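Subject: Predicted fold for DCBD1 protein, 356 residues

User T.R. writes:
Posting the sequence so we have a shared reference for the thread.
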Amino acid sequence: GDGCGHTLLTPHSGTLSSKNYPGTYPNHTACRWRLRAPPGTSLLLAFGDVDLEPSERCARSSLLLADPQAGTAYGPYCRNAVPTTPLLVTNSSTVTVLFNSTSHRSGRGVLLSYATSEHPGRGEWDSPDPPSPCCSVYCPAGCKDIDGDIWGNPSQGYRDTSVLCKAAVHAGVIADELGGQVTLSREKGITLYESAFANGLHSKRGSLSEKRLVFHKACHVPLPACSDTLEVAAFNASSWWHEVDALGQDRAWAPQRAALGTAGHSWAAEPGSEAAWLELDLGTRRNVTGIVTKGSSEQHDYYVTSYRVSSSRDGKNWRPYRGSGGQEDKVFEGNTDSHGEVSNAFIPPIVARYLR
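User M.O. replies:
I've generated the structure tokens; pasting them so everyone works from the same file.
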């Protein structure tokens, strides 16, 4: 049977786990992952968790890593034969990871991450407890869906008990599908950490902690300082709704009402229209690093649940946003109600004058 759980494998880094992790993994399953790094590089593997039922020679459940180029193997590992170090440095660009289980009673299973030797690796790698005041940590791809909670948001920072790399995805400093190096500091905690929905992740509302994690674009330059709001010179749209209210008065949900923070009703496309779009003219070519959306609760519970983004430098030729090396147009997760704000980061940023 299929014993594979959450898996995201890219040429430069990735994260993988057994099925149901961190719940008990199933009986009688098997999974094989093949990790491939670019030629000329070697793989580094980090053991996040190896919790398999103990047995003689790991017969009931086992994790085995095979290095076909060097003809060596690591393991088998289980609860009474765990890896001696949390980081395994190989001399190979290809490693096969094998996970097997027979009949057993308990165990969270396996959680592994990997990266290639070409990454700087300055400081600690995916450390849950970064030193103060500033450090650089490498986060592999695939951290968004691993188990664990985060408290806080990009503007105020995150409670230091948050899963670090998951918080980095939420803050928009790395893309989950690529991972990468993040720079952060551990600063004095605050009384209350407000929840937020950003980059497809919900953070929690949390109480006081002694320290908080603050992500930086570069050391000593906090993220909020790099997040100035861009002015919009003009709005346009494929259509807009002309509402006739109970008193027979006409009210236009026009595109210029789409600016965040506009009092009253927002923009809305004409009811029944398909492939509706909203266009923003920034006046000149700008570097756009993200977007914040909100619904309209003015008499109507309206909001957009998902959307795509296109950009143009001349207003005529449009390019769909595909994110970090994607082959398909990226679909951004939008709002789940008409009240809350939702943030999404563009990694890499968009350089354009017009956005749709």
